[in-house]
Structures are given as structure tokens and as C-alpha cells.
Amino acid sequence: MKEAILYERLKDNLVHCYLCSHQCKIAEGKFGFCGVRQNLKGRLYTHVYAKPIALNIDPIEKKPLYHFFPGSTSFSVATLGCNFQCRFCQNWDISQVRPRDGAHLKEEEALPEEIVKGALKYKCKSISYTYTEPTIFFEYAYDTAKLAKEKGLYNNFVTNGYMTKECLEMIKPYLDAANVDLKFFKDSSYKKICAGSLQPVLDSIKLMHELGIWVEVTTLVVPGENDSEEELSKIAEFVASIDKDMPWHVSRFHPDYQFTDRQPTSLETLKKAEALGKKAGLNYVYVGNVIGFGNDTYCPNCKKLLIKREVFSVLEYNIKDSRCVFCNTLIPGVF
């Protein structure tokens, strides 16, 4: 185990963790909400440092990040655990498993140096901290991201956005991009389905943008939960209020974990979400988890095709020096 960061010691061997927005106050011997950070004799420790549960090479489009080195590969890393309990989680078999509950951790370790070596060996452009929630393995992600920067690699988080201001300000020099899940625009839904709350996620998206981190937002459109025109409009309007060039991914839900009684999102609903995003003024709205529709990037000025995608592959690329090759319009992102 490694001593955690972003916490303070209190009286009577209590500790206050301020890594994420749960802001847990943890008694001696107990774990925080995430189930991976434990108070031992008045000090907070992480159980998952250098203990990845998943290591993969992914197309960056899988994150999904569409304006961050399109067509490149990213070295993906995750540990057990999460600070949400989303009932429709698609990675529940690793995110909802916690050392607190006696979960078995792999014997093998992969130190930050080894993650960076792996990314370089396989010629990845970036490292993605993904699959579960990078906030809860922050010490591991932070040390890895710092080394990655020294070696000319980029870093991105695929996150629920439930971290604190202190967390974001600390990682800012090393974090280049993030895809943030904005799951609902109702606090009651966050509480009921994810065991979280809305405002910290909104605050994180705003702060990331202010810090100069490239941000894309994803909403998994779940039938009967967040697929109303009113809620989708509010999400789109919020994203547009920060930056109309911030990409919004509306993704198709498929039954999983505790939501196996729901039907997949209809294409009609996803098209409605796309239209609402454009009505709100967003220049880039993408439809995810659907083959052959809604994945391409068009110039907002001349409307010509800039990037043609098929699933996670880039088939055509018409951006040069971050500009449209047809009309020279600057295309936002990291190219």
C-alpha cells in the first residue's frame, strides 16, 4: 500500500479525504466510499497503487475522444473500484469490486515506469486512465502522468467528473484531455442511480475547461431515465454555455448490470438528442455505440467532411495544422 494524497488528519485518528466530492471522513480501520482508500492508525492509504486490473491498447475514439489525436492509439490502464455505484455500469465487474469487500488483487504490479514503457513500446500517443474511475487511483495516475509527460506522451482521463478542485488543480500540468460523463441533469437521478450528485460534475467540467484541459462530454441515453426532450436539452444547453465547440457524445444504452430490464436506446431517440444538441448551438455532436451513423466530423464553417470514421477507425482525415483543409477554419481540439 501507498500513503494517499489529498487528505488531512483529524482528531481521534479520523482522516478527511478530499480527493473526490464525497469528501469522506473515515474512522480508524475503515474505508472511504470508493472502497480502495483506508484509514490505518490515522493515516490514509490506497490499496490499488501500481495494481492494474486492466491494461490495453485502444483506439482513442473508443474513450470516446474525437478531437484528441484522431486515429491514434492510447495505452489504457485501470484499477479496481469507483466512487460511483451506477446501476447501469458497463464495467461493473471491475468498477463495483473493491478491496474493502475482500476483492482479490492481482499479484503482479505495474509501476508507473512500466506503464510509460508499455505506451512507448507500442507507439501509443497517449495514456488513458479509464474503464473504472481514475480519481480513485489518483496517486497511481498522477505519478504515471508525470513520467509520461517527461517522455513526450499525452494523458487523458475518462471520468465521472466527481473529483475536487484540489484534485484537478494538482493533475492539471500533466492532464491534456478528459471525457467526462454527464449522466443526468437531475440531482435526484444522480443520487438514486449513481450514489452521487450533479453539481460537482458540472463544476468539474467548467473547471477543466478553465484550466485548459481539452474536454469532451458523454451522455449515455437511458430509456425512461434521461431521454426526455427537456433533460437532453438542458444537458446540451449546459455544454454550449461553456463552449459551443465542446464535443457532446450521446451514446446508446444497452442492458447491463442492474438495468437488464431496459431496452437499448432507439435510433430515433439518439437522433432527437443529436438534433437538440445542434439546436443548442453545439458544433460537434456525435452518436456513440451505433455503427454507420453520427460518428463523422464536419467543418462548422464550410460543412465539408473532415474526419470519416467507421466504428473506431479513421478512414478519411482532412485536417492540417488544426485547420480545415477546405476553408482554413480552425478546428478546436488537440491535433
**Could you give the count of β-strands?**
19
Shape: globular
Low-confidence stretches: none
Q: Output the CATH class name of the largest domain.
A: Alpha Beta
CATH topology call of the largest domain: TIM Barrel
Give me the side-by-side strand order of the main sheet: 7-8-9-10-11-12-13-14
DSSP strand content: 15-25%
* Tally of structural domains: 2
Name given to the CATH architecture of the largest domain: Alpha-Beta Barrel
Number of H/I helices: 8
Largest sheet: 8 strands, mixed
| Percent range of helical residues | 10-25%
Secondary-structure element string? EEEEEEEEHHEHEHEHHEHEHEEEEEE
Q: Compute the gyration radius: what is it?
A: 20 Å
Mean pLDDT: 96
Description:
The protein is an alpha/beta fold and 335 residues long. The protein has 2 domains: 2-46, no CATH class; 54-295, Aldolase class I (TIM Barrel, Alpha-Beta Barrel). The chain is built from 8 helices and 19 strands. Helix 7 (229-242) links the parallel strand 12 and strand 13. Helix 2 packs across helix 3 (138-150) and helix 7 (229-242) packs across helix 8. The protein is globular and about 65 Å long. The two termini are 38 Å apart. The model has no long low-confidence stretch (mean pLDDT 96).
